[in-house]
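Box 3.1. Reading complex inputs
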Amino acid sequence: MSDQFGIKVEEIFDTMEERFRPEGAEGVDASYGYDIQGVGKWKLTVKDGQMKIEEANDLGDCVAVTITDADTFVGVNIGQVDAMKAFNSGKFKVDGDLGALGQTAKMFTKFVSGKKEMTVGDFIQDMFATLEERFQPKNVEGLDVTITYDIQGDGGGCWTATIKDGTCVLKEERIEKPTVRLEVGAADWVDVMLGKVDAMTLLSAGKAAIEGDSSLALKLGEIFSKYIAPGEMAEPEQELVRLKKVISVDHRFATGPVMGKFLQGLKNKKIIANKCPKCGRLQLPPREVCAICRVRVPGVVEVGPKGHITINDIAYYSSPDPLTGETRETPYGSINILLDGCKGNETFWHLLRRDQIFEVEESWNEKKGTRVRPVWAENRIGSIKDILYFEIDK
Amino acid sequence: MAKKKKNRNVAIVGVGQTQYSSHREDVNQPEMIHEAVRLALADAGITIDDVDAIVHGNMELFEMIHQPDLWHVLGTGGYGKDSFRITTGGTTGATLACAADNLVASEMYDVVMTVGFEKLQEGHTTGGITNMADPLWSRQLQTGALTGSTGYKMEKEFGEERANRAAMMYRIIMDKHACLNHNSHRSFGLDFDQMDELMENSPRLVGDLRLIHMCSQSDGCCVVIFASEKKAKKMAKPPVWVRDHITVHREETFNIFGFDENYPVPMTHRFAAEQLFARNGIDSPVDYFDVFEMYDPSGWWGADWMREFFLFENDEHLKLIEEKEIMIDGKMPINPSGGVTAANPIGATALVRVAEAALQVRGDAGGHQIPGDVNHALASGFGGTMWTVLMMLERELSW
């Protein structure tokens, strides 16, 4: 019986079942062998999202067999020994398909000894080991960025996540000019990831730095799902309540003497404008002052009621009538009309008879648009709607 | 319009933006605002204690909240600070920037934080816009913010084929930019070979204005921090200087659709650009500016308005589009951010133009950073019945 770093090789195999993540084993149908020299041989069989671990003498049908000593095996599993270094130095050998063995990393949560607390280094290792699977491609469609985590101090390191085409690949490397680079102490980063401290607090306190696209850094919570420490359960997502309100308010607007004359005119089947004494232009509806010359405009003049269309805006999108909340029938024609007696841009705005909207011509320079006449409502109350619409004057 | 000499120089020192999206149901209004506030403070390397005053703005009718700035103190951090609320329709965000510039230049405050936000999912956008019409008569006729008149005008002048292609080309370029900006609410991945199909199949809204041309309704918040020269020079990031800004309004009605060359309609965009460039000694804006963040509510308006802002007379604007010179690596990059068709949280939208222009000058725009130096930037705001705000930003204090 060996006992490395205070942990027995058997503990790692014995806890495999509880550390198993079926979502990490999707589509896997294979056996993996472990030949821990001087200790024994184990065989892991994964199929249909299920797993079985057993001691076995024959590892012949395994896609990959890990051959190593107890120290290295435990060390790699608890993050005390660098797997790549062990591999390169020959302490950790793989017989068979190295790529297939890589799949097993996704199948298990990190081994945590029941006997000892996780260190900052353990957390950092586990956070980055789970980063790729915490990636949320649906939240970041079209994102093409590199994020470098420069984790400083004991247990730290430098990792770069490359996000492109809906995938995330993490490498333990430093690159030139990532989209964003985070620099933070290892212990502080663990606190952030465990939700003990807010990243912004660290930033404000100068304990962390962001280089490059700072807004991307704020989105890390969307790009990756929350880190859950081994052995802890994710909190159930909170149901967010949405309140529905309807505001319905009666209004009563005073029209004043000038607009009052315009509305009174409509009641009497007349269209009223006023004429600026300075520039001579007509305002329709009339205003108290000329908006261009800023002089008082006395008196009114009657124009129209017939005229020609300058523009016919055919609306296909039904916007709601704010007075009734109802949507209008589409398509309808929102028209500007140059009424008889008006010139240039002194147009009047109204609606066109719905069945005629595709039959009219618009104006362009000297060319006059189709002639139209108002159709008056039976009961007129002094409103723009006293004109139901304009129709072609045949 | 005479230009008064600025009392002291003002710089943009911090920018924060939320992700823009159709729904932010995971947070309430103060929480959403808080995200952008914290980003802007972190960007500037300051804390809320360093902020002297807050200027807050959105559209009044969209969320139907009286004094939202009071509720939002939870998110802005404006406890005990001087605060102002500004609501000038679509131009709100640009007016926030102008106000902050004036407040700092006046020496009233050294550091002013502007907060532009909208949560359009919580109200009814078209209903809100319709209610902005004169209640005495035009409200009963109003059709939201849509009109096909620009399309008609361009088709008459340049022919149907060329006008429609230019508007769609402009729209596709904006989408290509939007795909580079991870804050975009909408990025479709459109390509130029889809032009004919889109011109045929995208549903019509009004006339030849189609669904694909039009901006979205978005949720989101943008925060920009302004500081005096002395303060700005002490901060971590290079300051982006506010050189000048101008606001031009026309009358309140929409009766300005003239199509008779004997009766030209003066556009506020052109008037504002003429005044601003003349008083700053800029003869050729298209040569002077390295980037233009334009408030472009639709592909048609974006294409047409380029002519007014750059003071073109003929079809120079269409040529820039047709030759793809408005792309991020072109001669006159327009909206590397993707513009308003990429995201339109209305009360923030015009401030986003200023924010994105500042990021370009600073070289911090990330995936949609223009290659090469950006020394001179222009940002525009638009709203109501042809209201225009223009703001000029500079890398150096050299004018």
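In summary: The first helix of chain A runs from residue 9 to 14.
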